[in-house]
Amino acid sequence: MLEDDLTVTTRDQDGVAIIDLVGDVTTFAEDKINNAYREVTNTGARFVLLNFRQNDYINSAGIAILIGIVTEVNRNNQKLAVSGLSQHFQKIFRMVGLAQYADIYQTEEEALSGFDRFRG
Q1: Domain boundaries, the chain
Q2: For residues 66 and 55, is the Cβ–Cβ distance under 8 A?
Q3: At what angle do helices 30-42 and 60-75 cross, to 10 degrees?
Q4: Predicted pLDDT of residue 1
Q5: Which residues contact 92 (CB under 8 A, 6 or more apart)?
Q6: Is 23 helix (H, G, I), strand (E, B) or coil?
Q7: Is the separation of the CB atoms in 71 and 77 below 8 Å?
Q8: pLDDT of the residue at 4
Q9: Which 8-state DSSP code applies to residue 74?
Q10: Using CA atoms, how far apart are residues 6 and 87, in angstroms rounded to an integer?
Q11: Is the pLDDT of residue 65 over 90?
């Protein structure tokens, strides 16, 4: 049986709200991820980074959660990026269309630099 094996924390770095996801993104992660996203949105975040730096597994329920986040990001006129995905999950993000709505970076540092082009 799957179990809740995800730690979600938030932090701000140079005006980017970073949501760190450590562990597996499955159906059990929904409340944690959505709560973290709401928290950074309620503080006025325009730029959101999902940092998958220590992530080994994302199942279909996890993908569905992330699609929900993408929908909210677009609704709230925010900019979303992801970092730290394995090559395998980068490919899956592209296959399911998430890469159309979130820039994918190898590292957190690259993602933070990527947001610079949207700052006015």
Answers
A1: 6-118
A2: no
A3: 20
A4: 44
A5: 58, 63
A6: strand
A7: no
A8: 65
A9: H
A10: 20
A11: yes
This prediction's pTM: 0.93
Distance CA(88)–CA(109), nearest Å, equals 21
CATH number (3.10.350.10, 3.30.750.24, 3.40.1280.10, 1.10.1740.10) of 6-118 reads: 3.30.750.24
Q: Which two tokens stand for residue 66?
A: 């992330």
Quote the radius of gyration of the chain (alpha carbons, Å).
13
Q: Which one-letter amino acid corresponds to residue 97?
A: G
> From CA 108, how far away is CA 1, in angstroms rounded?
32
CA distances from 58 to 29, 33, 97, 103, 110 (A): 10, 13, 15, 18, 22
Residue 34 token pair: 């959505």
Question: Tokens in use for 106?
Answer: 């190898």
Q: In angstroms, rounded to a whole number, what is the distance separating the alpha carbons of residues 115 and 1?
A: 39
The encoded tokens of residue 1 equal 């049986």
Please say whether the beta carbons of 85 and 58 come within 8 A. no
Report the greatest alpha carbon distance in the chain: 48
pLDDT of 5 strictly over 90:
no
